[in-house]
Amino acid sequence: MVRIGNDWDELLKNEWEQPYYKALRSFLIEEYRNGTVYPAADDIFNALRLTAYKDVKVVILGQDPYHEPGQAEGLAFSVPAGVPLPPSLVNIYKELEDDLGIAPSESGSLRPWAEQGVLLLNTVLTVRAHEAASHKDRGWEVLTDRIIELLAARKSPMVFILWGAKAIAKKELIERSAEAAAPAAGARSMRHLIITAPHPSPLSAYRGFFGGRYFSRCNYFLQDNGMAPIDWNLAANLEK
Questions:
Q1: What residues are annotated to the active site?
Q2: Is residue 217 within a helix (H) or strand (E), and if so which, with residue range?
Q3: HSE of 129 in the Cβ direction (CA atoms, 13 Å)?
């Protein structure tokens, strides 16, 4: 039984007994026992622990965790303080500075965002060391799709930021889940904001990621819907 420690426990309690999750759990036990897997087992569900369902304002969707030593901490795009910034995060910080004038943080920890209601969710929550996407199609996508469905079905508005083709592929799931929860409104008039763009990795960032103004657009939407904006200034928050 997985213990998150907030309202996700009730929402996901049936998932842990499903055949797909039992098979995933058996696979993970062997992977952690016989090799190096990231993040540490205790950190797998950090995104859910730090951002309760009721508190989610923004979802930033990643792919799978960083696969080099010391990087993955259970939050999409985030690395622990003191770890060199991965290239994708460097580009996210560049866009943040261009958008809101916030100087890049020296720390790669995005925990202050998570604590304000930004769910930093990867679609796959574990990875074998040095082997990107090595835990793809093992069952994590079933669980994270369920998490996305639950969020999209929520009545209160939120922002979904989908960077890269794999994340953008979840747009239909978000729209379908929102429409099922409020069929009279329909997906085209849905209450959530979905922002899509190329992935921030160096391979694709210059194909349309830069200039997307994701952070200001997100805050305008939150404020228009009566919610407090996200303070995206990581350096200031980490000093508190």
A1: 64
A2: helix 214-224
A3: 10
Task: Determine the Cα–Cα distance for residues 136 and 45; give it in Å rounded to an integer.
Answer: 17
Q: What angle do CA 167, 65, 125 make, to 5 degrees?
A: 80
| pTM score over 0.90 | yes
CA triplet 221, 91, 69: central angle to 5 degrees?
Answer: 115
Q: 28: which 2 tokens?
A: 């993970």
What tens-digit pLDDT sequence spans the chain (240 residues)?
A: 799 999 999 999 999 999 999 999 999 999 999 999 999 999 999 999 999 999 999 999 999 999 999 999 999 999 999 999 999 999 999 999 999 999 999 999 999 999 999 999 999 999 999 999 999 999 999 999 999 999 999 999 999 999 999 999 999 999 999 988 876 544 444 689 999 999 999 989 999 999 999 999 999 999 999 999 999 999 877 655
CA torsion through residues 168, 234, 152, 73, sign:
positive
